From TrEMBL:
Species: Papilio xuthus
Lineage summary: Eukaryota, Metazoa, Ecdysozoa, Arthropoda, Hexapoda
InterPro entries xrefs: Calponin-like, Calponin_repeat, CH_dom, CH_dom_sf, SM22_calponin
Record Pfam families: Calponin (PF00402), CH (PF00307)
Gene name linked to the record: LOC106123570
GO CC annotation terms, alphabetical: actin cytoskeleton
Protein name: Transgelin
Amino acid sequence: MSLERQVRAKLASKRNPEQEKEAQEWIEGVLGAKFPPGELFEDVLKDGTVLCQLINKLKPGSVAKINTSGGQFKMMENITNFQAAIKAYGVPDIDVFQTVDLWEKKDIAQVVSTLFALGRETYRHPEWNGPYLGPKPAVECKRDFSEEVLKAGQTVIGLQAGSNKGATQAGQNLGAGRKILLGK
């Protein structure tokens, strides 16, 4: 098997049909329109128009102009505009797919991962009250301890400090001992 075929097989194995279906249902819920029947998930997203409409629904005006015609470079520009808009929306750069991942269908799993990152980010925007995708991110749970509690914690000897109420590993022999062979 050639290396290219191995790489494609590995990328295809990363795809999760349930996650793709969940992402598609979320997009359809946000946009209020169904994907065309019979078309593959990646084919609907490929030109970037649906993605641009999605971010414009989440944050109006994020993508000023959505290209609907004009060749492949204009369509790839849609994808690039979507990526810039979701980064501005708050999606971390590390979660954003590369344009070729979608355009050339190289890594659709990464595209779905980006959609889930965008879905998680919607939780952090109180102005959005539509459907959400993925688990709600944890919020900071800051704790303020008094000086008295902090000082009490300094007197406790942790189990990692070598004291475990007299229990030690002395006398345990598991397996063969280490043998160092010199001169061979």
